[in-house]
Amino acid sequence: MRKEECFYLGKIVSKYSYKGEVLVKIDTDEPELYDDLESVFVRLSGDNLVPFFIARCRLHKSNLLRIDFEEVNEEADADRIMGSELYLPLTFLPKLEGNKFYFHEVIGFTLLDSVHGDIGKVVSVNATTAQALFEVQKADKQLLIPINDEIITKVDRTNKVIEVVTPDGLVELYLE
């Protein structure tokens, strides 16, 4: 399975027992959707995803999964996969409607501002900052537009358009 066909589920953050169980910090608003997984893809090196089968999986606290992999039977095995990222196929994602979207879903969408019109295409989403940002390309300029409910007024999946109302002066900062 290629990484482009998957979404990031979480990262192995610690060992749970001497028998190889691990704790995974998952990146989701609905952790209960993932408390009974049968398998996941583990990124061991580069963009190579390796399938790992799960003997037992359950929620541990609010955003952690406690996973007992079939192939990981002792502490040394767990050490080898520590810090690895976990992925699932995109088909596992529940469909979103209205103004809710997955970041990977809106790459290539056009941003239409209520005042400035077409302000460019979404080339990526930066989720590493305190506030997630659309990275938008307009000709030779790059704009960073915050992602939040107050700014986004409509997501049109059919026409690949996101309508926004940007804060005063933000677009001018980049384009003028």
List keywords for this structure.
mainly beta, Elongation Factor Tu (Ef-tu), domain 3, SH3 type barrels, 6-stranded antiparallel β-barrel
Brief description of this entry?
This protein has helices at about 75-80, 170-175; strands at about 5-15, 20-25, 40-45, 50-60, 65-70, 85-90, 110-115, 115-125, 135-140, 140-145, 150-155, 160-165.
Task: Explain what the structure shows.
The longest helix is centred in the middle third of the chain and has 7 residues, at 75-81. With 176 residues, this protein is mostly beta strands. It starts with 5 loop residues before the first strand and ends with a helix. Helix content is 7%, strand content 46%. The mean pLDDT is 91. It is built from two helices and twelve strands, in the order βββββαβββββββα. It has helices spanning 75-81, 170-175; strands at 6-15, 22-26, 39-45, 48-60, 64-69, 85-89, 110-113, 117-126, 133-138, 141-146, 152-156, 161-164. A six-stranded antiparallel β-barrel has the order 1-2-5-4-3-6. A six-stranded mixed β-sheet has the order 10-9-8-7-12-11. The chain has two domains: 3-92, Beta Barrel (Elongation Factor Tu (Ef-tu), domain 3), CATH 2.40.30; 103-175, SH3 type barrels (Roll), CATH 2.30.30.
Lateral strand order in the biggest sheet: 1-2-5-4-3-6
Major sheet details: 6 strands, antiparallel, barrel
Strand-residue proportion? over 45%
Secondary structure: helix percent: under 10%
Q: Helix segment count? A: 2
Query: How would you describe the shape?
Result: elongated
The total domain count is: 2
CATH topology type of the largest domain: Elongation Factor Tu (Ef-tu), domain 3
Radius of gyration: 20 Å
Query: Structural class given helices, strands, pairing?
Result: mainly beta
Helices and strands, in N-to-C order?
A: EEEEEHEEEEEEEH
In the CATH hierarchy, what is the superfamily of the largest domain? RimM
What average pLDDT do the residues reach? 91
